[in-house]
Amino acid sequence: MRKILYFFIIGLCIAPASMPQSAPTFELEDPVILAQDLLTARASMAISSDEPEALFVTVDTMNSLEFTDPITGEMAATAVLGFFYNTLTLEPIGEPFIVVGNPDGDFDTLDVDYNSFTKEYIVAASANNYRPNNVQINLLAIVQSDESNPLVKAWAYDPESANSFDDVAVSASSNNGNILMVSEFSFPGEGEGVIGALFDSEGNLLTPNQGRLDVLQAVGDEDDPDVVFLPNNDVFLFLVNTDNDDGGPYFDRITGSVVLPVPDADGNMQIGEQQILGADRKDGMAQGHPAAIENPWTNELVGVFDYNNGSDGGDVFYFTVGDEPAYQLTESREQIPYLEASGSNPVNHRHPQLAADPSSGVIVVAYNVNNAENALQMGGMLFTLLGPDGDVLPANELSLAEDQVIYSMTPDEIGTIDNNANNHHTLYDPHSDSFISVFATSEQYTKAVRLKITSDHSPAHVNDWNLF
Questions:
Q1: C-alpha gyration radius of the chain
Q2: Which end of the chain is more exposed for a tag (fewer CB within 10 A), N or C?
């Protein structure tokens, strides 16, 4: 039977009566395939704030182009590939190129961010069975939009480690160009924790001592670390969910802390207090896969996470960053659902992502679905739209539940979206005034799609909103 991929827009009709909003309108283009002749897995992206340009990254699982790993100088078994695309046309700029390779194994997670301070890109990938100790090691690279020489630098972080790293995320400060890498790490006798490392804009290590980011519990794992730079607050925000399978005191709760973009006088990371961010709205139900952004209209932190690995919907949470030196994270209002679900009713999904469109006044929550009721048994990308206050916008069209609505969009002929975490990403592109999503399919294609909001929900347009 032919497999069909659908895109959706989903929303909850819970906007407060004091904030009347019409349902958003939008255009969703047909997706494009980034590497039609390659078998690829995993996907991430970064968008330039200076040029109409995006860097998509994915993993060529067979190194079909026979690239050499730039770190070891040996033939790669698998390779992280980069693809520059014009965001106005979603057409390629130049040929695919190797970012980093792995001579002996595969890659797990990968992440990429645009460093507007240097006008370059920073890529991080977690390589299995990497030399010399055959453990999982994080590889990093700096990339520039030069067709003749896109790779500026590639290196391994702590390559002599006898203990494995795991899920990795990276972000760059737009104010000074420094780069923060966060990663799971197998601490001997403790299970899995999280460390951080700060680099300058050229990739030179600024913090020779590992920065320990998980401090709430000494025993028990931490999963799905993420990091984002908050330009208005001039700090990084680190996010992770706890895991008490090994006896730790916290059961799968979203936590976070502030990390300063400069080390202290002794070369150590400056880390704020790690705090619980996910309210226990569903009575101890596991929380996971956190992400957050800085609301461009209110300066509030808007964060999201899913429940029970995506099988029971997901929530939006809201915090503010306090002043130095404590940088306390304070809940600013009550947590709300962006999707209420139970199993596949209405959909099973995973790993929400956030992006804001300053032009239309919309924040998108993008996530992948692998199962749905009402004869929509397929995988796809879904989008919940929030207004500039962070509340969910109303929607219309096909009603699936009492207060839930879904838009069925654009069928696609090549496979279902891979429902693993870290296999899709969504950002706003100021040049095309649209959201762009990149995602990996279970049939090993990497694809991108553009979503453009055509209605105006900005504070200037909705005069009776009291956002400030």
A1: 21
A2: N
Specify whether the CB–CB gap between 418 and 440 falls below 8 A: yes
Q: Which residue has the tokens 């979503």?
A: 451
The 10s digit of each residue's pLDDT in 420-454 is: 777 899 999 999 999 999 988 878 889 898 999 99
- Provide the CB-side half-sphere exposure for 121 (13 A, CA): 28
For residue 346, whether the previous peptide bond is cis, meaning omega lies within 30 degrees of 0, is: yes
Burial of 409 (0-12, 13-18, 19+ CB in 10 A): buried
Find the farthest-apart pair of alpha carbons in the chain and give their distance in angstroms, rounded.
Answer: 63
Give residue-wise pLDDT tens across range 274-305. 999 999 899 889 999 999 999 999 999 999 99
Q: What is the pLDDT of residue 468?
A: 33
Contacts of 146 (CB under 8 A, 6+ apart): none
Please name which of 90, 5, 106 lies closest in space to residue 56, comparing C-alpha atoms. Answer: 90
- Determine the Cα–Cα distance for residues 140 and 154; give it in Å rounded to an integer: 6
Q: What is the residue extent of each domain of the chain?
A: 5-453
Domain 5-453 fold: Neuraminidase (2.120.10)
CB neighbour list of residue 234: distance below 8 Å, 6 or more residues apart: 173, 175, 261
Q: For residue 282, which of 260, 261, 263, 307 has the smallest C-alpha distance?
A: 307
Choose among 147, 169, 171: nearest CA to 82: 147
For 126-135, 238-247, 303-312, 377-386, which range has the lowest pLDDT when averaged over its residues? 377-386
Closest CA to 213 of 167, 245, 149: 167
Interatomic CA distance for residues 217 and 13, integer angstroms: 38
Q: Which two tokens stand for residue 226?
A: 């993420």
424, 17 Cβ separation under 8 angstroms: no
Least reliable range by pLDDT among 29-38, 157-166, 239-248, 413-422: 413-422
Q: What is the mean pLDDT of residues 455-463?
A: 76
Looking at residue 142, its pLDDT comes to 98
Joined together, the tokens standing for residue 117 give 């301070």
pLDDT at 248: 57
Asked if residue 268 has pLDDT above 90, the reply is: yes
Amino acid at 219: V
State the Cα–Cα distance between residues 146 and 91, nearest whole angstrom.
16
